[in-house]
Design goal:
This protein has about 1100 residues and is α/β, with parallel strands linked by helices. The protein is about 50% helix and about 15% strand. The chain folds into six domains: about 200 residues, P-loop containing nucleotide triphosphate hydrolases (Rossmann fold, 3-Layer(aba) Sandwich), CATH 3.40.50; about 170 residues, no CATH class; about 250 residues, P-loop containing nucleotide triphosphate hydrolases (Rossmann fold, 3-Layer(aba) Sandwich), CATH 3.40.50; about 180 residues, Orthogonal Bundle (PCRA, domain 4); about 180 residues, Alpha-Beta Complex (Lambda Exonuclease, Chain A); about 80 residues, no CATH class.
Length: about 1100
């Protein structure tokens, strides 16, 4: 096979050694992605296992997608049978696919133990804050109410490291016992002598006595203190100075309230006892709510494997070969999940598992990653074989020279601890690089000068023929990159970077908040606030009201001493009347409407209605009309993105809530983020071209490579030991500190710098500036080992530090450019902005129907609602339908697991589902009665159907369905599969008015198109590609005459090859238009079924 010919001996060994545990140390550019795919192919070729018996785990969805695509190119459609997943998705899938092991089938909410509701960060903070506020007045943790977010973060750290409340409680009690044991020793040696002696000989004798005495005591806290003291003793002997011993004392022997030395601060362990109680109460509250947090997706899966041998054996039997990518980035809970699946007794401690990673690239400790897992892998299994990949196919030998000089400064390296010593020196093995690398070290006087040089150098590279997309500027912080933007913009260099901003400060979001404040004041009839907020709201740009009209009311209010009502005066002004009436009408409905409905009305998505007609807010038209997109694509894109993020967070918050969110909850949402001192960050791409210079953090650049890499601001406080991350105010005892990322390790920073350097193929440019804006001097990055104007880590020919002083005129110009950072609006290419979405986009039946729906703006509606995800509240009928669908899914799954729920259980289940939907009280009450009556009649009439097993809510996202270039997906309500005859029957549940027969109306057209596309999904899927769709039908859940009628028989669709061929042509035509962002003008078509058919004919002809 051609792929095997590309492998070097070490890679080939890793591919062919498929049995037993294997750890592959894969340095940057050594071809690990190729290795992973080739190994899967080798397993399938050399063993009798199926692709479904292979499990591949990685860290990002994009990583999983890339792995599957590469594997598909190697082994074909069997790639879709291999489980390729992120760790969290895999844990979630275990719970979902084996739900019978994770639930008590219960219908009462208080008894519902299933993990059904993800909890958002804001709700986590609310729960923990309420627990802390209930602590007694003398609690050591009561002050934590001022830093609740830090407590939440610590609970997450504990979960990731598999420390339960009971384990934490035990650790804290053991610590206090050990502190008591050590106290007598410290009293005898130190406190009785009045402290540590100032005389060197006596001082050394005290430390020696402490070391000897502590060595005789037991307990992991004491043992850790002893080990650290022993290290300090050896260091003191080496440097002939007691300074290391003094540093140990400062860390390990603080003074208590009696001015006595003690072993560690006992209050830290006492706080852990109280934290254990808070943690336990938090877990109890989650169970009460049937909720889970992000870490629970892994932990609950582990619990399921612990407590259910049948589940464990099923998964162990299924996954006989396991591959772990980026293993250095795993945390202990993720590794524990893997170990349990791998540890089948038949393997005798030698499972078929391969972990690929590089401890030198372990840069995600802030996300809970534990590089120690690589060492633990060696101890977790027997006879672990280690393979070291050192042939680098990316970088020039001079780039690797720099990388080596950085990596050798890393103190904690795995290969140095192995019994069989190995060499991790990378060798340049690419034949496609220039003879000479371009390596420069530049230093400037001012920050602005550094940015100016970077921009000019990039411009030179582009003019000399380098593609802009092959140039990257890397930094550890986004702010550094954003400061470079105006310099590149001024010389018209296309750029791409990920913009991060607190959207609570964005204009459109602040405007929505101001609207909500006005509505709240109107609802409360708070005249003072009404008078304050009305002029502010009507001054928002989208109302396009001249300030003179607003000020005239303010002046009138000031002149008329008895005038107290601003809107009353404003209603007399024709320019203000409509806007004022809009808010007065909306305040009446906002009292009972679900929050999302009110937000839709404020956004102008739906109107406020009264006897005089429909009244729309102008926000949507002002920001999101098609001409606005053409005028400023970036502003258009960002505004939709901000609203989408706000709405997504509100929905997460709603999912965690026991009640329907209200306008007050929306305002509280802002206040909670502010009181928690937590920004609401929206990260989104800014792309001026598909071929643009890449500005990104070194973290984001992991796994990527470029011809030329610029490393900006090579200072100690940016890349080195002077840099500081956010600290957690909840201090941990020393034997628990390993669970928390504190950003204080030089090794962590050296690894990040190593990652940045190794992104470069043959161009590396390291720059810095000597003076901060405040006049202070920047300390040089010590990892570069610079002195005498040279950088010793660089190749000899490139070691000179080029100090550049620009003339005052140029410096003034550069400083002015730097001031523009954060304020400049970039012209952007709309296709480039959507490039990532288009790359991963899959078309569903709903998307296709939206695209051709003339009544609802067709292609434009698809772009705004589907592709850009403009937020909009779900309709009451849609929410009612979802509650019915979820209930029927639950009912069928219960039957599949051998338990038949009684009717009253089904109806209670429906009530639970309904209470979780976005409905007003009126709509919910109507839906409750209608749904219960419908379900009762439907289940009674379809008894025979439910006797047969069926798959429910089948998701085709990972099935690799393709029709030409078009990638398809969708969910089918019900599949009835006959494996013997290899046939499939499709059923689609429908609520609303039943369709008695197929016609030429719009509803018939959409329903038929949907069923045809379901047929295509099934027959083109990997799982059922050899099956034939025997039939497809609509299942109408509601009676034909409301509650009094009877349930209609299913409506079957007779498939026609010619119609199916037409639909396939249409799908490919629409796909082409979507990918090119070419949306046809539909103004000439009737807004009817006739117009839709004419539009479909036009699209189909354009494809042929």
């Amino acid at each position: 096979m051609a792929e095997w010919k590309k492998l070097n001996p070490a890679q080939l060994e890793a591919v062919e050694k498929i049995y037993g545990p294997l750890l592959v140390l894969a340095g940057p550019g050594t071809g690990k992605t190729q290795l992973l795919s080739a190994r899967v192919a080798e397993i399938l070729q050399k063993t009798d296992v199926d692709a479904r018996n292979i499990l591949c785990l990685t860290f990002t969805e994009s990583g999983a997608q890339n792995m599957r695509e590469r594997l598909r190119n190697l082994i074909g459609d069997s790639a879709y049978d291999v489980t390729i997943s992120t760790y969290h998705s895999f844990g979630s899938d275990i719970i979902k696919n084996y739900s019978e092991y994770f639930q008590n089938i219960a219908t009462e909410r208080s008894d519902d133990l299933r993990m059904e509701r993800p909890i958002d960060e804001l709700t986590q903070i609310q729960i923990v804050e309420s627990i802390i506020n209930a602590l007694p007045f003398d609690s050591l943790l009561l002050s934590a109410r001022y830093y609740v977010r830090h407590v939440v973060s610590t609970i997450s750290d504990l979960k990731q490291h598999l420390i339960s409340p009971d384990k934490l409680r035990k650790l804290a009690n053991n610590n206090l016992d050990q502190i008591d044991k050590a106290q007598k020793l410290i009293d005898d040696i130190v406190n009785s002598a009045g402290g540590i002696s100032n005389k060197k000989a006596d001082k050394l004798a005290q430390y020696q006595s402490l070391l000897n005495g502590l060595s005789d005591l037991k307990g992991n806290l004491i043992e850790l203190a002893t080990a650290k003291l022993s290290e300090a003793w050896d260091k003191a002997s080496e440097v002939n100075s007691p300074s290391p011993l003094r540093a140990w004392k400062d860390e390990w022997m603080p003074k208590d309230e009696n001015d006595h030395f003690t072993l560690t601060d006992p209050d830290r362990s006492r706080k852990m006892l109280e934290l254990a109680n808070v943690y336990e109460s938090y877990e109890q509250e989650l169970r009460k709510r049937a909720a889970y947090d992000f870490d629970d997706m892994i932990l609950r899966a582990i619990d399921g494997l612990k407590n259910n041998k049948e589940l464990l054996f099923n998964l162990q039997e299924r996954y006989q070969f396991i591959l772990l990518d980026e293993f250095q980035d795993t945390n202990p809970s993720q590794f524990e999940l893997v170990k349990r699946i791998a540890d089948h007794e038949v393997h005798e401690g030698k499972p078929n598992i391969m972990a690929v990673g590089d401890d030198d690239q372990a840069i995600f400790a802030f996300q809970g990653a534990n590089v120690g897992n690589m060492k633990d892998f060696l101890n977790a299994f027997n006879d672990v074989h280690v393979i070291n990949l050192t042939e680098n196919y990316r970088s020039h030998r001079d780039i690797l020279h720099v990388a080596r000089n950085i990596s050798e400064q890393i103190e904690d390296r795995l290969h140095s601890k192995l019994d069989d010593k190995i060499d991790k020196i990378l060798t340049a093995s690419s034949a496609n690089l220039p003879d000479n690398a371009s390596i420069e070290r530049q230093e400037f006087g001012a920050e602005a000068s550094e940015y100016s040089w970077i921009a000019d150098k990039i411009n030179q590279l582009i003019k000399s023929g380098t593609k802009p997309s092959e140039i990257a500027v890397l930094a550890p912080r986004h702010k550094i990159l954003e400061n470079l933007v105006p310099f590149l913009r001024n010389i018209e260099i296309p750029l791409s970077y990920e913009k991060r901003e607190n959207i609570l400060e964005a204009e459109i979001v602040k405007g929505m908040r101001l609207n909500a404040l006005l509505l709240e004041a109107l609802i409360d009839n708070d005249t003072a606030k009404i008078n304050e907020y009305f002029p502010l709201v009507l001054s928002l740009p989208y109302w396009q009201i001249e300030p003179l009209h607003i000020w005239s009311i303010n002046w009138e209010m000031a002149r008329q001493k008895d005038a107290t009502n601003w809107p009353e005066l404003a209603l007399k002004n024709p320019k203000l009347k409509n806007a004022v009436n809009f808010y007065l009408m909306l305040s009446a409905s906002a009292v009972t409407d679900p929050l999302e409905l009110t937000l839709d009305k404020l956004a102008g998505t739906i109107p406020v209605e009264n006897a005089s007609g429909c009244h729309y807010a102008p926000l949507k038209e002002y920001y999101f009309a098609p001409d606005k997109r053409a005028e400023n694509p970036l502003k258009y894109y960002e505004a939709i993105s901000h609203l989408s993020v706000i709405r997504a967070h509100l929905r997460d918050h709603q999912a965690s809530s026991e009640k329907q969110l209200s306008l007050q909850d929306f305002l509280n949402f802002f206040e909670m983020y502010e009181s928690a001192d937590t920004p609401l960050i929206n990260s989104h791409p800014i792309a001026q071209s598909i071929h643009a210079v890449q500005l990104m953090t070194a973290y984001k650049a992991k796994g990527l490579e470029f011809d030329h890499v610029f490393i900006a601001q090579a200072h100690d406080d940016i890349w080195g030991s002077g840099s500081r991350g956010g600290s957690n105010k909840l201090s941990l005892p020393p034997n628990l500190q390993q669970i928390r990322y504190v950003n204080t390790s030089d090794d962590e920073r050296r690894r990040l710098f190593f990652v940045a350097i190794t992104r470069a193929r043959h161009g590396l440019y390291i720059s810095s500036h000597t003076t901060k804006d405040n006049g202070k001097v920047n300390l040089p990055l010590k990892y570069l080992n610079e002195s005498g104007g040279k950088s010793a880590v660089l190749p000899e020919a490139n070691q000179t530090i080029n100090s550049v002083d620009l003339n005052p005129q140029n410096l003034a110009k550069d400083i002015e450019t730097l001031w523009q950072a954060g304020q400049i609006f970039l012209p952007a290419d709309f296709r480039a902005l959507l490039a990532n979405r288009l790359k991963t986009y899959q078309m569903s039946p709903t998307h296709l129907n939206t695209f051709i729906d003339m009544e609802r703006a067709g292609p434009e509606s698809f772009l705004v609602q589907t592709l850009l995800k403009f937020p909009q509240a779900p309709s009451p009928s849609g929410e009612y339908g979802t509650a019915i669908h979820n209930t029927l899914e639950w009912y069928q799954n219960s039957l599949n697991s051998g338990s038949k729920p009684k009717l009253n259980e089904v109806l209670k289940r429906y009530d639970i589902e309904l209470d979780r939907r976005y409905l007003s009280k009126t709509d919910r009450d109507q839906a409750r009665g209608k749904g219960q009556a419908s379900l009762q009649k439907y289940l009674d009439s379809r008894t025979d159907m439910f006797k047969n097993p069926a798959k429910t809510e089948v998701n085709f996202y990972s099935e690799g369905v393709a029709l030409g270039d078009a990638r398809l997906s969708g969910k089918i309500d019900r599949l009835e599969i006959d494996d013997k005859s290899k046939t499939v029957r499709i059923a689609d549940y429908k609520t609303g008015k039943p369709l008695k027969k197929w016609g030429s109306d719009m509803k018939s057209l959409k329903y038929a198109q949907q069923l045809y596309m379901y047929k295509i999904l099934v027959e083109h899927s990997h799982t059922w590609r050899d099956y034939k769709v025997e039939s497809a039908r609509l299942e109408f859940v509601e009676p034909d005459n409301h509650a009094t009628g009877s349930v209609l028989q299913p409506l079957y669709l007779d498939f026609n090859d010619q119609e199916e061929a037409k639909l396939k042509t249409l799908i490919q035509a629409v796909w082409t238009l979507i990918q090119s962002l070419d949306f046809p003008d539909i103004s000439s078509y009737d807004k009817s079924a006739k117009g839709v058919k004419a539009f479909i004919d036009y699209l189909s002809k354009s494809e042929t």
